[in-house]
Amino acid sequence: MTIADRIRVQNVRVLSDNHYLLKTTTFEWRRASGEWQTQHRETYDRGNGATLLPYHLAQRSVVLVRQFRYPAYVNGHDDLLIEAAAGLLDNASPEVRIRAEAEEETGYRLGDIRKVFEAFMSPGSITEKLHFFVAEYEPHMRIGDGGGIASEGEEIEVLELPIDQAMAMIADGRIADAKTIMLLQYAALNIFR
Fold first, then answer.
1. Most CB contacts within 10 A, which of 11, 115, 128, 150?
2. pTM for this prediction
């Protein structure tokens, strides 16, 4: 039996289409017992995205960015958020978008990039799936200052950190972004062994 055999959508209503799409849905879900149960869920659709961790193997370093994130602030994070470069796909392939985002945010024009996995970040309410990438960087690949696009509200600081320091920053709470933690842990296990 497929998921399509276990769900009957009854009603979908748009709650907001202001910046992204917020919907409420009523559906029937067929439980393992065979009983149909009516459920209600809200879903927030902002599109899919991509994220990338640049690393320098010989220097044992990574490039991250630091910026203000209002949702994190209103949930008690009273600091700028340290993250891996990321962005929405905007109808482009993950590889094309993440190259552009990495250049806009970090100033690096990267060579070979490698996709390492995909993940739903908050599947209980947000439809977004992220494509995770890593890429080796060299100093000569930095073609600009990075910093993001000011007209889009971005004010991004570029950080180059030793991998050991970045891992310690996860442990002490200075790095609290899930996609960044996932990429750093991937790098620690698979790249900087």
1. 128
2. 0.94
